[in-house]
């Protein structure tokens, strides 16, 4: 079909719209010419582009879901490193306790009791104590007690005087240390009033001879501590030994304990 070429034809809508000029081109052919696919079809490049968009959209949605699931799951704690064998190189079992150094005398609990102090216990032999832990300045044959031996302890017990009879057994100790208390808490320097409070439940006795005073504390075993008191009624030294012997010697005014 030929198209008129008259000038008036260009003003005719049918001239500008081929579908109006040729009704036969309407429908599928006309849609295809305009790049629009009929229902159910995706012709040519338009169909491929649409499929690509769908695929990309699906990938993005799947990635988003994976990220969301990963965020909800939280972080798992890092696995602990495998345990290593920490056994000592010497071959000693890991559970074995290492040997501790022997305690020095200053680290030992030092208390002065009716039976003695530390290793210096009443009844111990002169020979054994000389061997261990030792004696400082042992002297035999004094003017007042010629058959007895007097010595000082060693280390933390240096301020404790030790008296041995002729048979070599320790029978009396005199503590002049300000750092060695009794088990009940009496010290050199403790007052008589404090002594009576400390030993309220133990047999105690005030002793006096001329201007000298003392306080004797005797246990059920018969062993005792005699607390010598100074002018201010404070302990100047404490003597451990047999209770009746200590009392009798103090009241007799003897110059020494023999």
Structure report:
The structure is a single chain. With 258 residues, this protein is of the alpha+beta class. The termini are far apart. It has helices spanning 13-16, 18-21, 28-34, 44-73, 126-131, 192-198, 243-252; strands at 112-113, 116-117, 120-121, 136-140, 149-152, 160-164, 170-175, 203-209, 212-218, 223-229, 235-242. The strands form 2 sheets. Strands 4-5-6-7-11-10-9-8 form an 8-stranded antiparallel sheet, with helices on both faces. The chain has a 3-stranded antiparallel sheet with strand order 1-2-3, with no helix packed on it. The chain folds into 2 domains: 7-63, no CATH class; 114-252, CAP (Pathogenesis-related Protein p14a), CATH 3.40.33. 26% of the residues lie in helices and 21% in strands.
Percent of residues in beta strands?
A: 15-25%
**Helicity level, as a percent range?**
25-40%
Which regions are unreliable across 5 or more consecutive residues at pLDDT < 50? Answer: 39-46, 72-78, 81-107
Average pLDDT works out at: 76
SSE order, one letter for each helix or strand: HHHHEEEHEEEEHEEEEH
In terms of quaternary structure, what is this?
Answer: single chain
CATH topology of the largest domain: Pathogenesis-related Protein p14a
> What's the arrangement of strands in the largest beta sheet?
4-5-6-7-11-10-9-8
Principal-axes shape call: elongated
Task: Please tally the β strands and state the result.
Answer: 11
Tell me the Rg in angstroms. Answer: 56 Å
CATH superfamily of the largest domain: CAP
CATH class of the largest domain: Alpha Beta
Number of helices: 7
What structural category arises from helix and sheet content? alpha+beta
Instruction: Write down the domain tally.
Output: 2
